[in-house]
Amino acid sequence: MSLDINGWIDGITASVVVIFGIIFGLFFIYRSKKTNAKLLAYLGLANMLAGLMFLGVFIDFLFVVFTNENIVNTRGIVALISYIWFAPVIITAMYIGAELLTPNKKKYIVLIFLVISIFFEIVIFVNPLGSFNFNPIPPTPPSENLIDYNVNLMTLAGILMGIMLVTVLIFLGFGFLYKGFQSSGVLRKNFLLLSVGSICFCIFGLLEGLTEPGIMVIIVRIGYLSSFWFMYFGL
Question: Which end of the chain has fewer beta carbons closer than 10 Å to its terminal beta carbon, N or C?
Fold first, then answer.
């Protein structure tokens, strides 16, 4: 096996995010049942979906480990099996935020994001190679690196993704922050934790798309996973 150090870092950290994303998600759902906190179940679902956003790197890593070859990236399949989970994560996150911040307008908010999400999914499936940047296809030399990809921010898919991330940052991140300043005691602490979690999710999610495989990936992915624990303690 000829993976270089950056390939190992990329593959191992992606594996950690996928596996622990699922484990944490199931734990949150379990805690939801034990405590009768319905929103924890939605947070658990969001956590699992967020973990699956690294499925492409994880599968490519397994291919290299067990076959010494990268996965065949036909029509950008490695990116597709990762980014198909992005829209469901955003919808679930917006549902949690709307339930806590504007419950009377929850249906409208979720419906708007459902429409945008469906449009996003159609765009990336219709033109996957035009929606993502691959560096390169396949890696050169083969099996030394994993397939590196991220959304091309200058395309329709990138613009839609940017709109959704910025909206989550403003509505959840700053919305919870505002609620925290309006509250006191335990309620203030909870809203501030929710705010930190939402902001971390957006910032580290964006950095993931901009960071090349290397040491920085470790910090970005730890921050990405930790965002859900901030939200867990907030809820």
Answer: N
